[in-house]
Amino acid sequence: MEDIKFEVKHLNLYYGDFQALKDLNINIKANRVTALIGPSGCGKSTFLRTLNRMNDLVDGVKITGEINMDGKNILSDKINTIDLRTKVGMVFQKPNPFPMSIYDNIAYGPRCQGVKDKKILDEIVESSLKAAALWDDVKDRLNKNALGMSGGQQQRLCIARAIAMKPEVILMDEPTSALDPIATQKIEELIDILKKDYTILIVTHSMQQASRVSDDTAFFLLGEIVEFDSTLNIFSNPKNKKTEEYITGRFG
Ligand SMILES: Nc1ncnc2c1ncn2[C@@H]1O[C@H](COP(=O)(O)OP(=O)(O)OP(=O)(O)O)[C@@H](O)[C@H]1O
After folding, report:
1. Residue nearest to atom 24 of ligand 1 (CA)
2. In 29, 75, 100, 142, which residue has its Cα 20 to 30 A from 231's Cα atom?
3. Number of domains in the chain
4. pTM reported for the whole predicted model
């Protein structure tokens, strides 16, 4: 059996009285790329954020059900959310480097965790930038401000920053929606390389992107998962009529 990273059981999420996720049941496989697709407002980002408890930061949220990560329910009160967010890193829609040097952007997280040794920090910075396919672009200007990089480079820096924390999972919420086609292609190539070492979930509005980068795809509609299958099946032989209508562009 393939390794399951997240086993989601009867997951419901409410923002106040509004139910944004409805009885989700899904197994996310380790070391695969899972795409979350569906029309605007159907709960993709909300679901993504349950996986590192980012919704805890929103007032009035209520969550029921279970999300077992490597067999442990991460929704339990006993879970240390700081540790969880170290294991489950996140990359956002808009690249959001800190207004500091390229080096310090990567070293920031490890330093917060108490790493002080310059040699170790140098190693983390180099290996993280290499893993994000950015080292060659920036190795001669590590002390320059990260805000001077192109948008695509900034997004790869944000991926490198996530990698520096040695995560097991990387959540990506529309990571290329602010990027041009060439920068997008680089991120997609990177995702393909990273899945060897990490479990990746990606929210995307691009059907082409979902079919290019992902192994499995979940189709969301109005807070429910309508269909979850291999990306090949979802795009070539969807079982649900709504899935077929969405992927062929008839709504959304
Ligand atoms: N903080 C919040 N408070 C109240 N309602 C929210 C909050 N965040 C999201 N919602 C609502 O929950 C539903 C799901 O939102 P979510 O952002 O998860 O959808 P999405 O599928 O990611 O949409 P998009 O593709 O537009 O990013 C929407 O109806 C949204 O208005």
Report:
1. 40
2. 75
3. 1
4. 0.94
